[in-house]
Amino acid sequence: MTLGKVAVENKTMGGMQGGAKTAAPPSYEEATAGSGPCYGGGYLDGGDMPTEFGWDDRNIRRVFIRKVYAILMTQLFITLAIVAVFTFCDPVKVYIQANPVWYWISYAVFFFTYLTLSCCTRPRRQFPWNLILLTIFTLSLSYITGMLSSFYNTKSVMICLGITALVCLSVTIFSFQTKIDVTSCQGVLFILVMVLLYCGLFLIILLPFGYVPWLHAVYAALGAVVFTMFLAFDTQLLMGNRRYAMSPEEYIFAALNIYLDIVYIFSFFLQLFGSEQE
């Protein structure tokens, strides 16, 4: 599941146009484009002091944040409902474990819709296709998460859900309150993702020769840390008052990224702290 976020550079899209007095922070693509326009809204004279948004910019940004979190809450409710069914309903649990083909179909659908929404601007901005694709993406990833949860006992799943909720709430509050600009750390995040990818490949190579529990625990702990940092990164992109900002038109993309971060955090916590069913 870690293939969904190998490149950090794909996480930010178009910057928001500023008000009459000042411009909003540029997106990562605009800031690194060789022939793009010159922005002065991110930082004053290249220094460390952020500029202030105009009233219209702040109002638009607040509406954007509310829209993203409304979509995110809907996604999380759907995922929680599916995980609960797959965890508490024994006939469903037995069926999905006996038919792994549905897992691979769901993974293919998840990967296709993720690439479509991440790489294609028109589908994720055109109503109602953006909501249709996001719904399919949410259902497929919810099935994957539910099937993963079905192999762990109920107490472990509930504990990991609680830990995930506390971690995500703490990271969100930290991202909104701190003066640390996580959006400027995309190089560090890229390196951590590559380390996580190589660890996963190493585990796959070693698996036929025997299961190594401590190595799997290290991999799961590293994955939880990496996607917790990604959650802070995506949250600050959403805020729009940091070095890089996400366009208010990208509410689908913003909700998708934060939702994916939370699901990954839960799945890694489940691998780290969960107890498998006997």
Give a short overview.
With 278 residues, this protein is mainly α.
Write the layout of secondary structure elements.
Blueprint: H1 28-32, H2 55-88, H3 90-98, H4 101-119, H5 121-125, H6 129-150, H7 154-177, H8 186-206, H9 213-239, H10 251-273
Number of domains: 1
Quote the distance from N terminus to C terminus.
25 Å
Tell me, rounded to a whole number, the average pLDDT: 77
Q: What fraction of the residues are assigned to beta strands by DSSP? A: under 5%
Structure report:
- With about 280 residues, the protein is mainly alpha-helical.
- It has one domain (about 1-275).
- About 70% of the residues lie in helices and about 0% in strands.
- The protein contains 10 helices and no strands.
- The chain has helices at about 30, 55-90, 90-100, 100-120, 120-125, 130-150, 155-175, 185-205, 215-240, 250-275.
- Helix 2 packs across helix 3 (about 90-100), helix 7 (about 155-175) runs parallel beside helix 9 (about 215-240) and helix 9 (about 215-240) runs antiparallel to helix 10.
- The longest helix is centred in the N-terminal third of the chain and has 34 residues, at about 55-90.
- The chain is globular and about 55 Å long.
- Mean pLDDT is about 75; it is low at about 5-20 and about 30-55.
